[in-house]
């Protein structure tokens, strides 16, 4: 469970402080799917980065299962990220020189385990996103939808409890968008994931159980 209390993130810039996230209070239950929408530049990605432990708040608390992410030492925060949290992004962020299999495997390497065990786990992850027959392909040899499937497999191969998605369908056509959201919904249901999805696309956010809107760094829950 996430518990956010008065969370703020102010960026210091040459032009002065930018309060990207401003006093957010929010509880997200385990297994919930919440969507966050809002106009560009209103703090959605900043909030997602805070939830994922990629950034620390300048004020307030972000608790994930009792751990205060803002205060955890770097090594422990890295461990939480490596085990408990999966990320997917608008631009897929696959490593261009690695095959689909190797991209997915890259999430398991820091966790140890035998190469043979890893191979089986990666094969199962690619199968779960419908890409068993594309394991040897480089990202450049895959469509956008297929690349996002690889990224989903990479995010979920370590069996995290949380999946954070930042505009995951922003680079896809409508049909592919619907396929990717249907896949995410299936995986969310099957795995009991906590899914936190940022999108400006109402067709995507309305699939969630709950929708919150970010405006000028402030979060409002929709009834
Ligand atoms: N590293 C940074 N340094 C300074 N300002 C930043 C930084 N990152 C974001 N900002 C500013 O913080 C505000 C929120 O940005 P953020 O990327 O979180 O918004 P967003 O809602 O996710 O937008 P988008 O949909 O375009 O990704 C913006 O005013 C942005 O210019």
From TrEMBL:
Organism field: Trebonia kvetii
Protein name as it appears in the record: ABC transporter ATP-binding protein
GO CC terms, sorted: membrane protein complex; plasma membrane
GO molecular function terms listed in the Swiss-Prot or TrEMBL record: ATP binding; ATP hydrolysis activity; transmembrane transporter activity
Claim: Isomerase is one of the keywords in the record: no
Domain ABC transporter, chain residue ranges per copy: 5-221
PANTHER family (alphabetical): ABC TRANSPORTER ABCH.1 (PTHR24220:SF86), IMPORT ATP-BINDING PROTEIN (PTHR24220)
Keyword terms, alphabetized: ATP-binding, Nucleotide-binding, Transport
One of the Pfam families matching this protein, by short name: ABC_tran
InterPro entries linked: AAA+_ATPase (IPR003593), ABC_transporter-like_ATP-bd (IPR003439), ABC_transporter-like_CS (IPR017871), ABC_transpr_LolD-like (IPR015854), MacB-like_ATP-bd (IPR017911), P-loop_NTPase (IPR027417)
SMART domains the record matches: AAA (SM00382)
């Amino acid at each position: 469970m996430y518990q956010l209390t008065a969370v703020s993130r102010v960026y210091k810039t040459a032009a002065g402080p930018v309060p990207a996230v401003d006093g957010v209070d929010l509880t997200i239950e385990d297994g919930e799917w919440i969507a966050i929408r809002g106009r560009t530049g209103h703090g959605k990605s900043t909030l997602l980065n805070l939830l994922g432990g990629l950034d620390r708040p300048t004020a307030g608390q972000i608790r994930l299962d009792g751990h205060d992410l803002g205060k955890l030492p770097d090594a422990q925060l890295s461990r939480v990220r490596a085990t408990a949290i999966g990320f997917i992004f608008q631009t897929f962020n696959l490593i261009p020189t690695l095959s689909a299999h190797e991209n997915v495997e890259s999430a398991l390497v820091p966790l140890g385990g035998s190469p043979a065990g890893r191979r089986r786990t990666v094969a199962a992850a690619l199968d779960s996103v419908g890409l068993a027959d594309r394991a040897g392909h480089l990202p450049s040899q895959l469509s956008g939808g297929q690349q996002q499937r690889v990224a989903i497999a990479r995010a979920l191969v370590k069996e995290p409890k949380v999946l954070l998605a930042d505009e995951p369908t922003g680079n896809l056509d409508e049909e592919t968008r619907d396929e990717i959201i249907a896949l995410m919904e299936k995986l969310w249901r099957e795995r009991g994931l906590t899914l936190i999805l940022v999108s400006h696309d109402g067709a995507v956010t309305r699939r969630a159980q709950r929708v919150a809107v970010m405006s000028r760094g402030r979060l409002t829950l929709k009834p």
